[in-house]
Write a structure and sequence with these properties.
- By secondary structure, the chain is an alpha/beta fold.
- The protein is built from five helices and eleven strands; from the N terminus they run ββαβββββαβαββαβα.
- Strand 2, helix 1 (37-43) and strand 3 (49-52) form a beta-alpha-beta unit.
- It is globular and about 40 Å long.
- The relative contact order is 0.15.
Amino acid sequence: MTGADLQRPHVWQPSTTPGLPPLLALHGTGDDEHGLLPLAGAISPGAAVLSPRGTVLEGGAPRFFRRVAVGVFDEDDLRDRVEDLASFLGAASAEHGFAPGSLVAVGFSNGANIASALMLIHPELLAGAVLIGAVPPFADPPEADLTGRRVLVSNGQQDPYALPEQTEALVAQLRQRGADVALASHPGGHQLVPEHLPAMRELARG
């Protein structure tokens, strides 16, 4: 890893409470590295937070990977962007002193989808994940060993971007690969709901 890997825009907030797992905050389309900082702080006050910006632009809106259309991902680009993110995490681990594999991802929408893709391709990099408004990242996901990884999927029953059958498929794919997955559904759409914060806190704080 080189210093060049850390040149992508990002925020690093050091821990103020020793012993908490560091969080990897991954924003949704059109947001940036500052967008999920309040959520990370609410989920695990005092935890270190690493929040990178997506490096793909769609009509000027930052994303973590390209899509062909709404709900149709460019999976080749997704795999390439996962490798870029993995390199960034390796450099960040060396620079900021957190243990490789200790991160808990907190992702919304596009950020949630690259979080699950990262877990499937590089399971050694994440301890767990909170996925909000998430769908399966791959039509044919890798056969990863996710034993010991804890995942919370927080999806709305009326979400036009994450249909109930997509939610079920994501949960099934992660469980089939050994992850301990909890599904928290709500009656709304593509959004974070405060009612799910206690479950997010429980997962993120170990």
